[in-house]
Amino acid sequence: MTILAFTGLLAAGSLLAGFLGALTGLGGGVVIVPLLTLALGVDIHYAVGASLVSVIATSSGAAAAYVREGFTNLRVGMLLEIATTLGALAGAALAAVLAPSVIAVVFGLVLLHSAWVSRQRADPLPDGAAPDPLATRLRLDGSYPSPHGMQRYQVRHVPAGAALMAVAGVLSGLLGIGSGAVKVLAMDRAMRLPFKVSTTTSNFMIGVTAAAGAGVYLWRGYIDPGLAMPVMLGVLAGSLLGARVLAAAPSQHLRLVFTIVIALLGAEMILNGLTGRL
Amino acid sequence: MTSAGAGWSDERLARWIGNLLRVGVGTAAAVVLLGGVLYLARHGGEMPSYRVFHGEPSQLRSVGGILRSAPQLGGRGIIQLGLLLLIATPIARVAFAVLGFAMERDRTYVLVSLIVLATLLFSLAGGPR
User: Fold this and answer.
1) Cα of B123 to nearest chain A Cα, Å
2) How far does CA A24 lie from the centroid of its chain?
């Protein structure tokens, strides 16, 4: 296979990943590394580097639209970015010392966790918890536009949310993903942010988190232009396309199919990691 | 939300940040695409070798190296320049937030944004070694 054919194949695969990721809300980044390592035999360090770059592109592109709609909580985002960027630095440093097989197994486990989380019903949480005085002092409480005018909300459990965010940052730096599943855990479950606020704010932070990891990857020579180019352009184009048809498509079945794909890829990554083939 | 200064508010900051992100990603994608076309025109017929990790040459690894050598390196150098622009976009966004919060006279969040900015610049300078 020539470079031209390889690049075309990679761009097509990335386009599909970005498209399905945006359509299902699961993110395209999670399937890029399995695609590169399992299907195309690329070394996992190069694969993670290319994936990180594509994650910056899609999240920044989407954040540009969301941030103007008024759902993103800039203060919550900035505050938690301290945790995610420091975590990403640690994760990127870990990537250099861990064996590729270990990274593959961790990646597989995270994929299985994402698939499991996406099947969970989002049951409404009891609203009894007391407001966090820390949140009040840091002026984190906000409001968002709803059909009944501006809806106010309070932020809870700031330290727990920040701790989970640091974990999300480590995984992002180690695996080159946005770690949406862990961020949902932190912002929906711990900090009790309204759904639309937590998804847009988490997306807002992903670009900065991935940039913290990408700097380290660049220096270590993990970001290859020939590989990152088709992945970044493909995922970006696919996710823009996905966001465009999102309103019209019945995403429920598609989401189930994509979740199964993610779970299978996770099992495959673990298997390949354990047998030392990656 | 308090809005001190010359009409600065979180809403206005959000609008500016939105524009900044769009222009940054758009420019980066265009540069990467240009580099990609040049790269494929020159090397499209060769065989790829990504199975074994051997790292990138030093000119493609550092900010200074990329900026200095992009013109001579052809397609690969231009792609790397585009990727650097992409990585710089969220960093510029944080720098912008420092300014915005300063205009709002919100000292706590100026400090918060500065910590994030310092972490990002540390990473771009090579990170922990």
Assistant:
1) 5
2) 13
